[in-house]
Amino acid sequence: MLRVHFTAGDMTRVRFAPRPSPVPELHAALLMLGAPHEELLFGRWRGRLLRTLPGAAEPLAQLVPGGTAPRFLDVLGGTREEGFALIRAARPEVVRSELERVYAGQGSVPPRVRALHDGDAAAWGALDRAQRAAYETVLAPVWPLVQDLHRAEFTRYALTAAERGLAAALGAVAPGSRLRGGVWEWPASPTAREVGEVRLDGRGLVLLPTFHWRGGPLVQDLPDRPVVLTYPAGGGIPPMPEPRGARGGAGGLSAALGRTRTEVLLALTEPRTTTDLARRTGISNATASAHATALRAAGLITTTRTGRSVHHERTPLGALLLAGGADRGAPPGPWTRRPAHSARPRRRRR
């Protein structure tokens, strides 16, 4: 369980990141590539990235032996350039101590990591190129969608905080968590990285949603800085580039669901009211409501009522259906380790 301890001053220093931060989002995605996950929900996303992630990104994999990343990668930055510059500006003694920490008990250290430890300029150049190559493959195709998802999450948090207060807003960030006696308690997660007790001590807290990580909270707890808590948000699976021609309403999905229901499902890039769905798809409110009922009965969307408002949202199954199903034929890459029982290669489908 994660326990975040607030002082009285920290209660007024909780803020929600106003926009997504590219570097933490990138690192969350790369961690997700090597994390245990459901093949049905994440197989296609993982397979696509492992097929397209260039070899130039390999130095990043070498920085996270055993799934533990050095803390000098824990930076924010409003743009990727700011984030990359903050990593490069890490103090040499911090870089050395963090690399020694993550490689303790991990066996031999790769030459590239030794060179970073020694402050070699060429090694830092290779790391910078690795960051850029990974960003172009992993985040660039879906960054507009990440921005849309972040705005929706920001609005949800702000409305909850304004209507019901900070405790309710924090509870909405992490369902099952609670703020009591100045301590925010997170429920245990089977995939959570061990964090334990976090004491803000007047530094404040920044809440940053990530749309690529499905494990427990990721905490940046650095001296003399606000604590940054990155938490999983979104529809349950990482964002995927929109399939070509999806907006045209053609293809197998339209044949199975019907063109209008497919358009309704496509319109749910974020929770929407029935009126908003009707407006976006060019149908009447009654027709939008009827199609939403059918999609809900199929388990593709959920519907929640808040006061007089009704909001519809895709389920992970609905998002998976739009993504076109899981791809189980991805080859292993530098961010994964093949389990012992899967040594026999699978035959590719033609």
From TrEMBL:
Residues 252-325 form the HTH arsR-type domain. Residues 338-350 have a biased composition (Basic residues). It holds the Pfam family HTH_20. Residues 323-350 are annotated as: Disordered. InterPro entries: ArsR-like_HTH, HTH_ArsR_DNA-bd_dom, Metal_resp_trans_reg, WH-like_DNA-bd_sf, WH_DNA-bd_sf. Signal peptide: none annotated. Keywords: DNA-binding, Transcription, Transcription regulation. PANTHER family: ARSENICAL RESISTANCE OPERON REPRESSOR ARSR-RELATED (PTHR43132), HTH-TYPE TRANSCRIPTIONAL REGULATOR KMTR (PTHR43132:SF8). This is Winged helix-turn-helix domain-containing protein. It comes from Streptomyces zaomyceticus. The lineage of its organism: Bacteria, Bacillati, Actinomycetota, Actinomycetes, Kitasatosporales.
